[in-house]
Amino acid sequence: MDPIEQEDPELWVRDYIAMSQDLGRKAEEAQERFAEIEGEGRNDYVRLTVNSGGVIQSVTFSSNIRSIGAEELSDRFMDAYSVAITAVNGQTESFIRSINGDEDPAMADYVRDIVPHGMRERAERVNQEQQR
User: Fold this and answer.
1) pLDDT digits over 9-44, tens only?
2) I need a labelling partner for 47 at 20 to 30 A (CA). Which of 31, 40, 65, 82 fits?
3) Same domain, 62 and 125
4) Pairing between strand 38-42 and 46-51?
5) Same domain, 28 and 44
6) Which residue range(s) make up the domain with 47?
C-alpha cells in the first residue's frame, strides 16, 4: 500500500522504515556486485585487467615486447586498455539496466556514453582485427 494513502500514522512509519531498510539492503548488494565488475584486454604483447572504475589492476607483458619499439608497445598497451575499459563499460551498463530496468534507460545510456572519446572505436577496431 502507498504510504501516503495510509491512514494509521504508526503503520505508515513502520512501512516507511521497512521500505528504507529494503532499499538499504539493495544498495549494499548493488555496491558489492558493482565492485566485482572487471574487464580484460590482451594482445600478443600485453594483458591487463581493470576494475569497475577503470583503474588498472594488473599488467603482464609477454617476451614478445623485445621485438617491438617503445611507440609500438605504447600503441599495443592502449589497444588492450581500450578493450578492457570498453568491456567494463558494457558490464556496468548491463548492471545498471538490471537494477533500473528498461523503463528508465537514462542512467545506463549515460554510463555507456562516458567511455573516453575514441576508446570505444579503438576497442571495436582491435576486436575486429583479432577476429581475422
Assistant:
1) 888 888 889 988 988 888 888 888 888 889 999 999
2) 31
3) yes
4) antiparallel
5) no
6) 38-131
| Gap between the Cα atoms of 115 and 65, Å rounded | 28
Residue 86's nearest CA partner among 113, 130, 117, 119 is 119
Contacts of 2-8 spanning 24+ positions with Cβ under 8 A: none
Among 127, 130, 45, which residue's Cα sits nearest to residue 85? 127
Instruction: Tell me: do 79 and 15 sit in the same domain.
Output: no
Q: What is the pLDDT of residues 36-67, one digit of tens each?
A: 889 999 999 999 999 988 899 999 999 999 99
Give yes or no: residues 31 and 50 share one domain: no
Helix (H, G, I), strand (E, B) or coil at 40: strand
Question: What per-residue string of b and e applies to 73-94 under the rule 16 or more CB within 10 Å gives b?
Answer: beebbbbbbbbbbbbbbbbbbe
Angle at 110 between CA 104 and CA 113, to 5 degrees: 140
